[in-house]
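Posted in: Structural Biology > Protein-Ligand Complexes

Title: Requesting predicted complex, glutamic acid in pocket

I'd be grateful if someone could produce the 3D structure tokens for the following input. Sequence and ligand are given below.
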Amino acid sequence: MIRTRFAPSPNGPLHLGHAYAAIVAHGLARARGGEFLLRIEDIDGERSRADLAREFLEDLAWLGLAWNGPVVAQSARLAAYADAGEHLKAMGLLYPCTCTRAEIAKAATTIGPDGPVYPGTCRHGHASPEGAAWRLDVAAALALAGPLEWVDELAGPQQARPDLFGDVVLLRKDAPASYHLAATLDDAADGITLVTRGADLFAASHVHRLLQALLDLPVPVWHHHGLLVEAGGRKLAKRRGAPSLADRRRAGEDGRALAEALRAQHFPAGISLSAILHEEP
Ligand code: GLU
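-- Reply #1 --
Done. Output follows.
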């Protein structure tokens, strides 16, 4: 049975782009007789807001999207992230890093999918673990895991290229885990068989595939859908004035009609679906 999920982060209200993402995940599950889960990605302590997470449930109900089972929150799973971190440390694959963003930007010589690629400054044991972030030694991890493949339903089979990101942070200084570690562990714990999300996270799946190999987790299939973009191609963002679903709901708009329109890919004027982007290594 297939199981998909919608995994919003409660650090800003949901807008039309999120509604589309939720509709894709829900629609794929329903069309194939599967399940659709809702997961709140709330480990970003400073930015996560419980009031927004509560609004998300109302937004989805307003759109007519029912989810299966209880809502999962990442904040309830911190022990699992710490355990996986310890496991990877014991395998000798993580190292502490105290470099600042500015130092990395200055020393970096390549730009990866997430910006400047960490040049490996602390890889050979220079940093004290006190207050450090922990990075994955990607070359060592790949040597252990060997070549890996993963499949996106839309883009086809992919050769995993986590090296494009450099040594990613898995345990953050300021949060219990990085997105990569938490999302990968959660998708496994939740039995997600089809990871459905926007094409802006396509490249992240290279890293997730490597983590699955290292942590002996099941390997799902991915479905990276197109993003809703404004004229000019930028993705919708609250800070650029995309109205929140909560505001539209409170203004009395019909959420189910909106969901129907999105399902039929009828978007408001000036908004369209981007071509499916996917990075070629
Ligand atoms: N929490 C992420 C976001 O809100 C989504 C992560 C995912 O779907 O893997 O953009």
